[in-house]
Amino acid sequence: MKILIVLAHPEPKSFNAALFQSAIKTFTENGHEVKITDLYAMKFNPVYDRSNFKSVKNPHFLKLQLEEIYASEMNNSYADETQIEQDKVEWCDLMIWQFPLWRFAPPAILKGWTDRIFTSGRFFKNGGYYENGTLKGKKALISVTTGSPEETYSSDGFHGDIYGILRPVSRGILACVGFSVLKPEINYSVAHLTDDERKFVIEKWSNRLKGVFDEPIFSVGKY
Fold first, then answer.
1. pTM (whole model) above 0.85
2. Domain-located, residue 197
């Protein structure tokens, strides 16, 4: 199988980076093809503006969706770094995002990546969304870490239901474009784990990935 792993964390020695490296190692050792996107390491520009295109539909007023569609009509005339990432997404059978939860959301660099990569005309076309999305048949899995403990992310906890917090990503981005979404991997309060606990979490993650293609689809829900 072909796997794309996207990392959104600025520290190479972070626990997120350790989970990222564990995923690469696990898939490679089990005979899968792996491509990576390390957003901070590659200094990916998350700002979405006219620089995302080599072509120009309307030089006087920037309407991003119209420019996206026009770029797709002009032989995918997106910026080079955008085309490279789009090609990776189309190539993979499974996409994994590894990121910390910051203020109830992924780091801005990851959101900016989705804004620039998941474009109309290439990934959104012919009215296709969700089950009819362009990327139907591919799977997606988010692996997220939190600063607060698990009990604060229950439906009646201090922060509220973790699955509701992740829904803008799991449904609004991934399922919307056609991915079949797997149950998120959530590791809570990682800054407070002992070394032994971190080793256990990494081993658990590796073991899950060995059988990830046999997992059922997770219902992300509308609400």
1. yes
2. yes
> Which of 129, 130, 137, 147 is labelled catalytic?
147
Mark 48-81 as b/e (b = at least 16 C-beta within 10 Å): beeebbeeebeeeeeebeebbbbbbeeebbbbeb
48, 159, 160, 164: the active-site residue: 159
Tell me if residue 121 is catalytic: no
Q: What is the CATH number of the domain that holds 186?
A: 3.40.50.360
Q: Which of 78, 112, 133, 153 is catalytic?
A: 153
In this predicted structure, the answer to whether residue 223 has a pLDDT above a threshold of 60 is no
Phi-psi region of 137 (alpha: psi -120 to 50; beta: other; left: phi over 0): left
- Whether residue 154 is contained in a domain is answered as yes
Q: How many domains does the chain have?
A: 1
pLDDT digits (tens, 9 = 90+) for 46-63: 999 999 999 999 999 999
**Over residues 64-93, mean pLDDT:** 95
150 lies in which domain range? 2-214
159 tagged catalytic: yes
Structure confidence by residue, pLDDT tens digits, 131-175: 878 889 999 999 999 988 778 877 787 867 888 889 999 999 999
